[in-house]
Every structure is written in structure tokens, then in C-alpha cells.
Amino acid sequence: MNIHKLWEYKEYVNVNGMMLSSELISLLHNSLTMLQVENHFLHVQYWGQLYALDADYHIAVGINRDALTDRKYYYTTDFKFWGLLPKSKKKYKHLALLTTYPFSGDPSLKIKVLDEALDENNPDRCPVMKEESRLAATISNICDEAGICARGQILKQPDGTIVINPNYYGLTGSEAKLLKSYLHIRTPQHRWNTNLLTRQDYNYSMDFLDSIDQDIPSGCWNLSLEQNGSVVYLKSLYWPGMMYFHKVRTPEAGFLYVGNGRKNLDVPFLL
Amino acid sequence: MKFPKTTECRHWRFTLVASKSEKLDQEGEEEQELDLEEDTEKPRVVDLIEHNGYFREGGYGLPDSECYALYIALHMLAIKEPISTVRFFGKIFGTKMNYYVAEVDLTIEELDRRIREFELKDMPGEEGLDEDKPPDAGEEQKELGGEETKEEKPKVPVPPKLPPLPKSTWTPPIPIPVERPGQGVNKKVFYVCNQPGEPWVVLPDVTPDQIRVARLTVRCMTGDLDAEVLTFPPFEGTERNYLRAQIARIHASTSISPQGFFTFGSGEEEEDIDLEEGGGDLAFSPNPYYRGHTLKDLLDSNLTYWVHHGRYILKQGRTLWWNPNAGMDEGVEEEEDEGPVPIPPESGPMLFTPLSEDARIEGLPAWSTRISSTLVPERALAVLRSNIWPGAVAYSTSGKKSECLYVGWGLKNQPPNFSPLQLALPQDEYIIGPEVMEMADPTFADEEAYRIAHLPPPPPPELPGEGEGFALEEEEED
């Protein structure tokens, strides 16, 4: 969520009963504006919260020229110092999915991932991961699978750079009810012509991203209309705690994750 | 622009509530003498707006628009149904629609009526249900079978002789009786609606078997009360029963309050707690002498200052343990040789057990405490978040305010992840014995050894000379 609009979005945010309190918004607004000025970011967004034992992690994203690749993630527990998260490695992204115990709240803590090495009676050979890497990997996993935007919110320009659409005007009421109007914010995984040609009214600059209606199983995204159909909420069953809202026919939209950072593997049983 | 149906619906409700409140006002003016009596009869609606304000301060709660509509809807419910108190329990998400759940205490008259109804229906059935029903079905089948054979007799000349069909030796376990309305898991009545403003629908009472099955499964609500529930241990009932069972589980484990906030109805009865009848089912009420705790105590991570006020549901699916042998004692005379095996009574934590006794999950305590404000400690309040039922929260100020709320999917956090119940092992078709056991095929050497061992005894030597000669011949051939 754009940090400069947090006060306006306050009423729309509703993730599993979690809402933004006034104090949290004031703190975020102040400290993230500082972060934006110091690092010369075009956009700064509040990404969400990851529960830990003692104090929760708050995550922010700084976006520069390229909206897909030029992203920097920051974390804090006290809103005074925002630490830059390392780039997530593929190895850690895999290990983060295996780790089930909660975050401790100490980024320098080294944790042992209990994988198959434990079964082979080699507990010493279990891979070790710093909590900071786990945090980065978890965030990157969530972004890959649950980071979404409405169609048209992110544009590909003729020179290949990807930008956040400054003139975005929102989806119409009927478009907003379709899962096809929402796209993954990630490097596309499907072929470019699949994404383009499954639409009648395709547009080269908008439809280069994967749409979420192709995710498996088909019920894993939950779309609901609230406030008499004026606000659309999207929730992922795989990542409970993730929320995306969009106010129909306005540029107001935002993504938020508040949760323990664990993927829900029970989705096939839930449906 | 076309408004959705709910908007009209809500508008109609608003007018209805408005007219009702006007009427109450007028009555109040006309009959001021009767005011006191009316006050006692008026249903009490817990002030959702105030509590939501506190929750919002702590970072949880509902959006204001939703909260206000709900508050009106709760009043609506209180006007229409025979209710003494209404409380907002929470919101449960569904794949198509969400549920808003109201928790309700019935008026005494209505409760008495329901208990009488329940006793009429079920008390004779408790003996009748488990004994009458299966034989009934059996008899019907027999009758049907008998008729069929009678009809077929002239047509079929000689029925082929078949071995008798194997009989199932499995007997269904004795059903655990349902707790009566106003007791245990059915102490409260729950009403749900999909949108604040839609008519409230009452949920049926929950049975122990439904709780047992709900504990073994995970499932998302759909938002349709009549949706089918397809789970592996088969669930008896539709989604309204499943929803009720989940609410009962959530209610039992996430109803918490600061120590001393509630107190037993009357202190004298505390001795009776261990008694079987009514034990642990004592009524409790807000403590008028509650003074509040300091924030430091409430935020203590040991959580000794927070207690459960939801009754623990035993493995049986009841809050009061039911002795399966109690009914058998009467029938023991007939089958004395069997003798009921004494079953140790299940017991759970008592009411008002501190949260520090809660089980931890994977090193994570069952509840996390947070303070709402670090900047202004005077205004701050303590917020607890459940890690077992994600979405359950409770707050308490250092004064006398406390409340809990659930907004979530109705799913329990069970790390590492859910694994469905395994199918029971198939029963043996035959008694295991040497005839049906599989064993290794004999090798050629085994067969040869067997043949040699079972050779007919060699004929007795008749003439030694011939035998020698035969042997000699063989040697010569070699």
C-alpha cells in the first residue's frame, strides 16, 4: 500500500480482523517518508507484517525505475531503523518453506532447518540459515505467489521498462468480479502469447503478466465484494493473511500481508 | 446504478429498528412507572461500537461502516427473538459469502420451553435411540425380505444352495448423548447472517459426534448454510451443523478474560464442581468487584493474569463427561458375565484456568501479547492474539473493559500441516491358519528330499547274492 495514502486506506484494510491502528500509521508514515527521501525511491509501499515471538517484523518496499525488478525490501521491529533485506537466494526460498517454527524476532539468529538430513541421523548436516535470509526468502515466496495487482496498474513501456501506471483509473464493476482482471506481480512464468491471447481485448502494455485465474487449484483465490459491491477483496488460501483490495472505478488499491509467514499446505482439503 | 438486494434489505431493517425505538420511547413517556420492569425485560445488546473502538486502537476489529450496520442488526435480532443478551461473536470467512455470528442467551421462559421440548424428544430416545432404531431398520428389512421370498417362491423352483452370507460383527458405538440446551457446548445459541441486515438464522445445537468429526477435518466454509459437507469421517449434517461445531470449538478455546473479570454465579456452589451432575457447568457472571489489573500484569508473557471462560470440550465432544457405563448398570443383570469395563473419566482444565496452562505449538506460546501503544502508556491497552486459532483476539484495558472477537477462516493452526485420518485396516476375511497362510514354494531340492523321505520302504532283501550281483553290474557299467 502506498504509504502516503495509508490514512485513506485505513477503513478498507481488513485482514483476518487486523486493522491498522492510528499509531501504527503515524509511525509508518513518518519513518517511511524519511526512508524514501534518503534513498530516492519513486514509490514506497507498506508491505505488511510478519509475526514473531516478541516483536513483529514490519516490511516496506522501495520501488525505483522498474516496478518488477528494481525493488528493495526493508524490515524493522521498532520503526526507528529500517534494515535492508538481502536478495533472496533460491536455496533459502526452498528452505523457508520447510521451516515451520515461528520467527524469533532476532534477525541475526541462526536457525537449523530440519530436512531429510535429520531422518538419515545426520543432524549436523542440516542446513543452517540466518533469520534475515529466511525473512527475505519468505517475503519473496509470498510476492511470487500472492503479490498481485489489478490489470492496468502496472504497464510495460515500449522501451521495456515496467512502471506503475500514474494514470490508473480502476476496474469497472463487471471487470472487478473476474479473476482474470488481476495479475501476478512477478516475472511472467507463462509464455507471453498465452497471457496475451486469452483475452479478447488484449493490450501489449498490460497483459504481459500472468493472470491469477490460471493458478491451481481453481478455488485458491477468494474474491469477495463488500460495502455494497464497491470494494473488491482478494484473499489467497495458500497464504492466509494476504489481502488485496481495490475500490471499483478508482485508483485506490493495495496489497497487505499480515501473518506468520507460513504457507498453508492444506488447500486441497479445504475446498 | 442498480443497488444490490442487500441494500434494500438493510434499508428496510433500518426503518424497522427506528420505528421500534420510537415506540419504546413513547411507551417510556406514557408509562414511566413501569420503566423498571421494562428495563429488566429488555434484551441487553453488548455495546459493539465501544468494544470495536478499543479493538481498533489495538490494531484489530471491524471497519466502522460494517460495525455500525452490525450493531443495528444485533438490535434487530434482540427485537425479534426471545433473547436476554446478545453479543457479537465474530466473522467467519467463506469462499462465496462471509458469516457474521451473534452469540445469544435465551430468555428464561424460552430456555425452559426448549429444555422441555428436548427432554420430550430425546430423553426417552436415549434408551430408545440406540436400541429401537437399529432393530427397526432390521425388522423392516426382514419384513421386506420376507415378502419378497413369499412372492418369489412359486416362480423359482429350487433356489441354489449358497453358503450363508458372512455377518458383520461390527456394532456401532453407543451414541454419546447431546448436551441439553443451556448446558455445556449448547449453553449459548448462535445466530448467523451473510450480511448485516439480512435475517438472522439460528444454528442448530451441536452434537458430540459433530465435534469429533470437525476435529478430524479441515474445510472452508462456503457461505451457504445448506451446502454439503464432504469429509472423510462422514459428517452428519450440512454446513450449518459444521459451522456450529467450529464455532463451539473456537468459543471453547478462545474465550478469555482477565482473571477475576467473571465470577461464579454464587460462591457457595463451588464445592459442587466435582460432582458429576452439573459439575463444571456452573453459571458465571461479570464480577461486580472486578478492579482491573495493571498493564504490566496483563502483558506478562506468562499470561497468568488471563483465564479461560470458555468450557473445555472433552474428547467425547461434551464439556461434562458422560459415563458410558452409567446406562449399562441397569442392564447389567442380564449380562453379568461381561461386566462393564470401568472407563476413567475424561477431565479437562477447569473453568477459569490461566492461559499459562495452554499447550504450546512448536515453541510458540498459544497466545501472543502486544501493547497497543508504545508512545502513550496511559492510553495503552493489552491485546492478545491467538496462535492456535488465527484470527481470535482479546483486549483488556487496565480498567474494567475486556472482550474477545474472532475474525477468520474458522481454521485451526495445526503445524506442520493437516493429515487426513487414515482408513481403518480391513478386517480379516478368514481366520488365519495354515490353510490360508502364504508360504514359500518348495524348491526342487525340497521336493526331492520329500520324495526320498516318503519313498515306499525298500523291499526286504530276498537273496543277498542277487543284490550283490546287481551292484557289481552297476559298477561295471560305470
TrEMBL record, chain A:
Keywords: Cell projection, Cilium, Cilium biogenesis/degradation, Cytoplasm, Cytoskeleton, Flagellum. It comes from Bicyclus anynana (Squinting bush brown butterfly). The keyword Cytoplasm applies. One of its GO terms (biological process) is axoneme assembly. GO terms for cellular component: axoneme; kinocilium. It is found in: Cell projection, Kinocilium; Cytoplasm, Cytoskeleton, Flagellum axoneme. This is Radial spoke head protein 9 homolog. Its main location: other. Belongs to the flagellar radial spoke RSP9 family. It comes from the Eukaryota.
Automatic annotation (TrEMBL), chain B:
It is found in: Cytoplasm, Cytoskeleton, Cilium axoneme. Residues 119-175, 452-478 are annotated as: Disordered. Keywords: Cell projection, Cilium, Cytoplasm, Cytoskeleton. It comes from the Eukaryota. Residues 156-175 have a biased composition (Pro residues). Residues 131-155 have a biased composition (Basic and acidic residues). Its main location: cytoplasm. InterPro entries: Radial_spoke. PANTHER family: RADIAL SPOKE HEAD 6 HOMOLOG A, RADIAL SPOKEHEAD-RELATED. This is Radial spoke head protein 6 homolog A. It comes from Bicyclus anynana (Squinting bush brown butterfly). The gene is LOC112054659.
